[in-house]
Design brief:
With about 350 residues, the chain is of the alpha+beta class. The protein contains eleven helices and twelve strands. α1 packs parallel to α4 and α3 runs parallel beside α4. The radius of gyration is 23 Å and the shape is globular.
Length: about 350
């Protein structure tokens, strides 16, 4: 009588495909290496990414006397559900980088390197490479090296087709040039930099208002969106302000004319601007000093969503705020505009707080 063979269980049988992960690594390698700066010690495929901090004048633009490392982490939130539904995965990686490096530059830091994390139901090499393509593009826009990452295939945790995306970055700033808002004083001006729509906050509310109660599909073209589909508008990548801000900071190496900066994310202006103001000071905001993009008006209408709630959840067209010395405001705004930014005087620093005031 022949001996019966025992059926063995493989990792692939449980839904995890090691070979697919290896294929994805091969696909993303040229995307990752494109972001490498001279400080990256090339060791692709190792267990850790290596980055030089010996600021040799022959290689680098400047040395740091008292270097302070700066770290930030964030994710993309439920914007990934829109990306999955639209089957467009190559932009949310830009969002992931943007959410982190825009936070980092608030203290005047230069981003150095970035690492991403993707948790997914299934490691489809082509789909995962599309996500990393966006991450690499975000790193290129912010002059930040994509030093490494991790993709975890977890069919027991994520539904079919679902994934999550998060990241982590390290930057550097000269200690004496750190910007924390402590030098903000009466009469300083707040300069607003325009956003590119929703960016990556408030998507649970936006999805409910537009795709739920509003009854829109992702391919619908409401007249308010001026020719764009709902999906195209919702998937606009978060604007990355790194190069524009660092250009301004590099132009005033001696005079400390930029005193505070805020990345306007979840919480909106009312939640983020007070974070960079000293006790006893507030900003009196000119209510009609900037154009509100149509997507926000559409969400407010279709929700409907109360105006106060809109200001608490969304950026409402302002992605970043700089608080500067009034005598330098015009020159700073000119530099920002030459860098491609849309900017306006948002308001003036007054006594009060901690809430912002409206004029």
């Amino acid at each position: 009588m022949a001996q019966r063979k025992t059926q063995t269980l493989s990792y692939k049988d449980t839904g995890v495909d090691i070979e697919a992960g290896d294929t994805m690594v091969d696909l993303i390698r040229p995307l990752v290496e494109k972001t490498f700066t001279p400080r990256v010690v090339q060791q692709y495929g190792g267990f850790a990414g290596l980055f030089r901090l010996d600021f040799n004048e022959r290689l680098y633009k400047r040395n740091y006397r008292e270097p302070v490392l700066v770290s930030c982490t964030d994710g993309v939130g439920t914007k990934v559900k829109v990306a999955v539904a639209a089957d467009k995965l190559d932009t949310v990686g830009i969002d992931c980088v943007a959410m982190i490096v825009n936070d980092m530059i608030c203290c005047g830091a230069e981003p150095l390197f970035f690492l991403d994390y993707i948790g997914a139901n299934k490691c489809d090499p082509v789909r995962m490479a599309e996500i990393v393509k966006g991450v690499a593009e975000g790193c290129l826009q912010s002059a930040c090296a994509l030093l490494g990452g991790e993709t975890a295939e977890m069919p027991d945790l994520y539904a079919a087709g679902d994934f999550d995306l998060a990241g982590f970055a390290v930057g550097i700033v000269e200690r004496r040039k750190t910007i924390n808002g402590s030098k903000v004083e009466l009469g300083d001006l707040a300069i607003a930099l325009g956003s590119d729509g929703l960016h990556s906050n408030g998507f649970t509310l936006a999805r409910r208002a537009l795709l739920g109660k509003g009854g829109y599909g992702l391919t619908d073209r409401p007249p308010e969106l001026e020719g764009l589909t709902v999906g195209q508008e919702m998937l606009r990548p978060t604007r990355i302000y790194v190069r524009s801000i660092l250009n301004v900071l590099g132009s005033y190496r001696v005079k400390k004319v930029v005193k505070g900066m805020a990345h306007i994310t979840g919480g909106g202006l009312v939640g983020n601007l007070p974070r960079v103001l000293p006790d006893g000071l507030t900003v009196r905001i000119k209510r009609d000093s900037w154009p509100v993009p149509p997507i926000f008006k559409l969400i407010a209408k279709k929700g409907p969503v109360d105006p106060i709630e809109m200001m608490r959840v969304f950026n409402m067209g302002i992605g970043f705020v700089m608080i500067v010395s009034p005598s330098f405001a015009n020159s700073i705004m000119n530099r920002l505009r030459r860098s491609g930014e849309r900017c306006w005087v948002l308001g003036k620093v007054r006594k009060g707080g901690p809430e912002v005031l409206w004029a």
